Amino acid sequence: MSLTRILTEAEFTKDMVETMLEYFDQYAVDGVLRVEVTNRGLWLPNPIVPGRQFLGLARLPDELRH
């Protein structure tokens, strides 16, 4: 029996990873970059001022693919 559970998954394109690297120092707190997963994509929360930067969306959600 495994105690590990998958809570959610995030998919990243190469461009998204490059953006995370480019903005790492501005958005990281104590050397850790947090990514918010929403129904509208992935976001980098700004630790200095309220707000966040859109990181991207690797694929459209199933409900938007018709």
Overview of the structural elements:
It contains one helix and three strands. With 66 residues, it is of the alpha+beta class. The chain has a domain at 34-59. The protein has a three-stranded antiparallel beta sheet with strand order 1-2-3, covered by helices on one side. The longest helix is centred in the N-terminal third of the chain and has 14 residues, at 14-27. The chain has one helix spanning 14-27; strands spanning 36-38, 41-45, 52-56. 21% of the residues lie in helices and 20% in strands.
Question: Summarize this, please?
Answer:
The protein has 66 residues and is α+β, with helices and mostly antiparallel strands. Helix content is 21%, strand content 20%.
